[in-house]
Design goal:
The protein starts with 11 loop residues before the first strand and ends in a 5-residue tail after the last helix. The radius of gyration is 26 Å and the shape is elongated. Helix 1 packs across helix 9. It has 526 residues and is mainly α. It has helices at 22-29, 39-57, 82-93, 103-118, 126-137, 156-166, 182-188, 200-203, 209-239, 249-253, 260-271, 275-282, 292-295, 297-319, 343-371, 394-410, 432-465, 475-485, 498-510, 512-521, and strands at 12-15, 34-37, 97-100, 141-142, 145-147, 171-173, 179-181, 327-328, 334-335.
Amino acid sequence: MQLRNNVVGTAAVELGVGPLSGEDILAVARHGARVTLAPEALAAMAASRGVIEALAADDKPHYGVSTGFGALAVKQIPPEQRIQLQRSLIRSHAASSGSEVDREVVRALMLNRLATLATGRTGVRPAVALAYAGMLNAGITPVVGEYGSLGCSGDLAPLSHCALALMGEGEVRDAGGQLVHASAALAAAGLEPVELQEKEGLALINGTDGMLGMLTLAIADLHRLLATADLAAAMSVEGLLGSDSVFAADLQALRPQPGQSESAANIRSVLSGSVLIEEQKTGGFTRVQDAYSLRCAPQVHGAARSTLLHAEAVAAAERASAIDNPVVTLDGRLESNGNFHGAPVAYVLDFLAIAVADVASMSERRTDRFLDRARSHGLNAFLAHDPGVDSGHMIAQYTQAGIVSELKRLAVPASVDSIPSSAMQEDHVSMGWAAGLKLRRALDGLTRVLSIELLTSARGLDMRDGGTATSRSAPAVTAARAVIRTVVPGPGPDRYLAPEIEAVRVLVEGGSLLAAVEDELGTRLH
């Protein structure tokens, strides 16, 4: 995955006591928007902090305030050691390892944790939340390794690295992406390290914020990729001289699965006005039915949309949550709970990985049909300029097949696994963080698979139809082909293919290919 948007922007997202939107998270995580704290949030935090300070002053043990953590919660900590308790918690829990997690994931994680602090249910001082917001606004991104969260008791290690940076310790990336010590980054931004008091270290690390951040980013990416999958399917139907009759609205209405009719409507829109399709209807078309990878695209893409719809509902509920343990209730009690368990988010991250693998698998099958003379209806073998001398897109399909095979492995759920930890106190965990990371890899794979299908279908249409200047394609398909031809030459003898795949991948990931088609249609694809 590639790091995005190293420059912090100027737009602001205000955090109150209510939930963020998915758009808010995207704005801060991916596009560098600033964050502010509403007066109501500052007041709520001050009120709940009063509860914590009152409990800290009595002689009874209160978890997270005057006790150890996890399996060590049975030990009461004297007042003079409680600041050290919070400091030790963060240092010991900042234990991640492995490759550095993408900047947008860390920023989403930080924003989600800050949103929970702003609810006033965690008992932190307003000053802590303001300092955390200051780190986000300065573009300071703590370095977080990919391993360390089991998705229960919060994304502990990732969040601990962020809290460690707030304390002025550990490594971070500055706004320019340079690796620096946290103390230097804070000083350069005019920020002071924070000395954490009772309960505050725990409140900074006890949430599902990382997995929620990855889910939110994935939802945005999947909306774009599923619309792109419909575009790719339409181009393949046209390039393989298929039928558009199966996408009729009345046929789709016979099976009112959510998402299916939207996918079919997209494909109909993209194919509208196709001379190549119409010629098959009037020229003695003999195929009774197209292959499933063409005919059943709305059913598969629609099922993926249904899964996405469920994921959006889970994400919305999670954004409306105040996840910490213990929490300060609205009537001033400090109560332990299990809301930090990541199962709801972990499940849908895994569900989406399954859907992604299946959409990619169908795309690869459509690509393969273009390359087989027995199934491509008149195109050169492998779309080669001179078959035998040239190999055309033979190995591009191998690349697709390798990615699809990887996506099937990534579709194996992480959330069915659990490894007990903390001396069996935390004896069932969600593995939601791992589910989020593998979904991100799966989305990257789907982007590449769709890019190869689009590259292949554009080449097949050029070989069948000539260039876009004389196109018999649907206007929307012609627009897509024209955009692809701005970065990749038309058919010809074999040439270095990897840069062409990458060039189309950039078009797909950046959304410019989809935007050109939507501009031609005068409407958004669903």
